[in-house]
Structures are given as structure tokens and as C-alpha cells.
Amino acid sequence: MSVKLVFLGKLADLAGLPEMTVEAPLDWVSLVEGLEAGLAEAIEGDKVRLALNGTVLADKRTLDAGEGDEVALLPPVSGG
């Protein structure tokens, strides 16, 4: 059973890869604990959002991903 993590922007740079697979089920605590310390610290900030199967979560701490789900980690958007 697995969940696909997709890292976008700066988070992909921190992760060193654009995506990875982790064990399901996956909640917020297991996500943070399963990542390298620098990446885990980066996603804990208020500006990083999570999307579960294409839907941005209002509160990333409510993450509840199961078999076959995709979790995208969305860094802050910048531009001008």
C-alpha cells in the first residue's frame, strides 16, 4: 500500500527528487516524521500547502491519505 508524494518548486530541490512513494495510510504526523529534517521543517511553515488528489486542504494537519492517493506539497507562489 502506498501514497505518492509530489514535491513542487523549492520543495523538489530540498527533497532532491520530484516525487517519491511512501507507505499508506499517511497522516500529517507520519508525513513530517518520514521526511528528512530540513524538508520536514520547510513543510511545517504556514505558507506551504498540501493537495490531496488535486484538492488543496484548508488545514494540512487534517491529511488522511490512503492507498493510491497523491499528496502534492505546494511551496509559496511568487511572481510579479
From TrEMBL:
Top-level taxon of origin: Bacteria
SUPFAM superfamilies listed in its UniProt record: MoaD/ThiS
Gene3D superfamilies listed in its UniProt record: 3.10.20.30
Name of the protein this chain belongs to: MoaD/ThiS family protein
Organism: Croceibacterium salegens
